[in-house]
Amino acid sequence: xxxxxxxxxxxxxxxxxxxxxxxxxxxxxxxxxxxxxxxxxxxxxxxxxxxxxxxxxxxxxxxxxxxxxxxxxxxxxxxxxxxxxxxxxxxxxxxxxxxxxxxxxxxxxxxxxxxxxxxxxxxxxxxxxxxxxxxxxxxxxxxxxxxxxxxxxxxxxxxxxxxxxxxxxxxxxxxxxxxxxxxxxxxxxxxxxxxxxxxxxxxxxxxxxxxxxxxxxxxxxxxxxxxxxxxxxxxxxxxxxxxxxxxxxxxxxxxxxxxxxxxxxxxxxxxxxxxxxxxxxxxxxxxxxxxxxxxxxxxxxxxxxxxxxxxxxxxxxxxxxxxxxxxxxxxxxxxxxxxxxxxxxxxxxxxxxxxxxxxxxxxxxxxxxxxxxxxxxxxxxxxxxxxxxxxxxxxxxxxxx
Length: 401
Ligand SMILES: Nc1nc2c(c(=O)[nH]1)N[C@H]1C(S)=C(S)[C@@H](COP(=O)(O)O)O[C@H]1N2
Ligand SMILES: [Mo]
Prior knowledge:
The protein is built from seven helices and 23 strands. Strand 17 (311-317) and strand 18 (325-326) form a beta hairpin. It is 13% helix and 30% strand. It starts with a helix and ends with a strand. The chain has helices at 3-16, 118-123, 151-155, 168-175, 200-205, 255-258, 369-376; strands at residues 67-69, 88-90, 103-108, 114-117, 127-134, 158-167, 183-188, 195-199, 208-213, 216-217, 227-229, 242-248, 263-264, 270-271, 280-285, 296-305, 311-317, 325-326, 328-329, 339-347, 352-360, 389-392, 398-400. The protein folds into two domains: 83-268, Sulfite Oxidase, Chain A, domain 2; 280-400, Immunoglobulin-like (Sandwich). The model has no long low-confidence stretch (mean pLDDT 93). The strands form six sheets. The protein has a five-stranded mixed sheet with strand order 4-3-12-7-8. Residues 89, 135-137, 235-236 line the site of molybdenum atom (MO).
């Protein structure tokens, strides 16, 4: 154990004893009486324990194909979102695509138009990276007022996976982008033909044509068999069920980029193609809807992320923003991925407000609600990244503040 970790552990061990462990010092435990049982047979594909209940709430929709589910982030640990709990956002349902028949067309302003089968793509050099995907509409309800009663409701349109695929740069080099090719248009095979324009520099920098998520094939809901992964950019450009990429000379102004994802500012002008998701953080424990067992040791836990790079610092306030303490950041800290933060805290049993703010490697600090609305007004439905407060009552209940 490194020295400072060890010191932290020793400091904690005193309070941990007060945090609900029921053993008495010196109590005798009979090893022979520890329970055991004959288990179930082995099985071909894993499932979680019957006692685990974390799930995505499925809204009751008139058209169930058009909607979203949210990741219950407060019920996940570490930085990886289980694929089965990744949020979903579909504009026209989840197509059931046969990977033996699905192809990706790469054409437009290129020397050679190319058609790739999924098998072709899997033969090419591959790369794996951990990246978050966050819908531009995540936390959108917070613009008007601090709205969300819990983490899932306000922050659950964000998840983090390990994505594996072919760097898009390799495909573009195969095709040979002509000098006039400055943008691309990526299109999905769902009924709405989701399509978005992206600058060619981003495509050459770090985009992936992904076929795997967390070690297995991408889930149908995440774009099986192929999705574009655009690290750090708003969720919508991560086109699922990817079927074509067309190289063009300017953004296409597709329906998906003109009808949505543009921020109306206070002065009546609008921001379009903002793309990058700014630094953001949220405390996942204690958070809205949870209840603290009683005064004493608590580990404050949360997630921070930034579309511009790595999270450099997360500060936590347990007195409504008057004083701030640096939280420990889980290593390795990866660019454009979730970073888990943790801070030991001794709750004295009185009413208080807790919050966190993130600083990223671009030197950007997550703004307060006031700073954000001062700069951008409160007309938008997208790209909200103000800090989130949770109010802890004297009875231990945690509510939206
Ligand atoms: N083809 C296609 N791609 C799509 C969408 C879609 O409806 N169709 N939704 C987009 C939106 S708005 C978001 S936020 C992300 C959501 O990705 P997920 O469903 O894997 O979480 O996918 C994007 N890619
Ligand atoms: Mo989205």
